[in-house]
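Suppose you are handed a protein chain with no further information: no name, no annotation, nothing but its sequence. What can you learn? This example shows the usual starting point.
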Amino acid sequence: MLTFPVRVASIDVGSNALRFLAAEFTSSSHFSVLKQDRYPLRLGHDVFQLGRMKDNTIESAIQGIKIFNNYLKDFKIEIYKAIATSAVRESKNGEELIDRVRKEVGITLEKISGDEELQFIYISVKNRHHLRD
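A reasonable first move is to predict its three-dimensional structure. Written in structure tokens, the prediction is:
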């Protein structure tokens, strides 16, 4: 069970960018954003054309995740979720990125399915906009 306040974060390794969001919850429904960042990186460009990520793209992704890891430390965040979406999921060398991030940065990237990705998108949109039926 969580005790408030609690700081949490998310790392999203997406097809067009890496995204970071950290928030402090003062209750289960009230929070303030501590840090939000976007690291532009087109992982999907290589994957959808070549079927794999180029070495320099993997290096850039690792550098971006290192920056995000520093945010986790700076804000003393221990509860976070790091996910990898379609570009990593569909890449022939997606596991290489996941392994290197774990070894070099200490963050475990969870490769999520397309259905899980859709659920996260739905929840995000639903929380920002009133959806009918």
